[in-house]
Amino acid sequence: MIWFGGERPSLERFRQYGKGTLQGLLGMEAVDCGDDWLRVRMPVDQRTHQPFGRLHGGASVALAETAASMAATHCVDPDQSLVVGLEINANHVRPAYDGWVYATARPETLGRTIHVWSIRIEDEAGKLICISRFTAAVIAKERR
Questions:
Q1: CATH number of residue 23's parent domain
Q2: CA atoms of 47 and 86, how far apart (whole Å)
Q3: Catalytic positions, written as ranges
Q4: CA pair distance 28, 6, nearest whole angstrom
Q5: What residues contact residue 115 under an 8 Å CB cut-off, 6+ apart?
Q6: CA atoms of 50 and 53, how far apart (whole Å)
Q7: How many domains does the chain have?
Q8: What does the pLDDT look like over 58-88, one tens digit per residue?
């Protein structure tokens, strides 16, 4: 199990992050989590479309980073550390036009100072929309 404290965080705890933030504006919400993964969904609608009616690649990247960041945050001692993004990349492989997309973040490595996460974004039928890799730094909380 990857979660700090040895227990899965509650989905309600993840959902609190969305209030008044980018993920809230885009309609993202945590929907499930396991021993080593977190799933976050986002609607494909006017908020997340590009001008031609497809899911905007930037919205997919925002979803990927949100899923990995939320998960990484719960893998460190919150009294001592916080997690900040260093790098993200994404390969957009299939369009989505409506419905929901689901990002599942899983760690590749959880080091003392660096985390690397892989994120698969799929549509409601389970078809791959985007694959992403996110690197985060674990920093001391007082460095805020």
A1: 3.10.129.10
A2: 26
A3: 65
A4: 26
A5: 72, 75, 83, 107, 109, 135, 136, 138
A6: 6
A7: 1
A8: 999 999 999 999 999 999 999 999 999 999 9
Nearest to 48 by CA among 63, 64, 30, 31: 63
Q: Are 78 and 88 within 8 A, CB to CB?
A: no
**Neighbouring C-alpha atoms within 13 Å toward the C-beta of 119:** 35
In tens, the pLDDT along 87-131 reads: 999 999 999 999 999 999 999 999 999 999 999 999 999 999 999
The whole-model pTM stands at 0.94
Q: Tokens 């990927």 appear where?
A: 64
Domain that holds residue 58: 4-143
Measured in residues, the chain has a length of 144
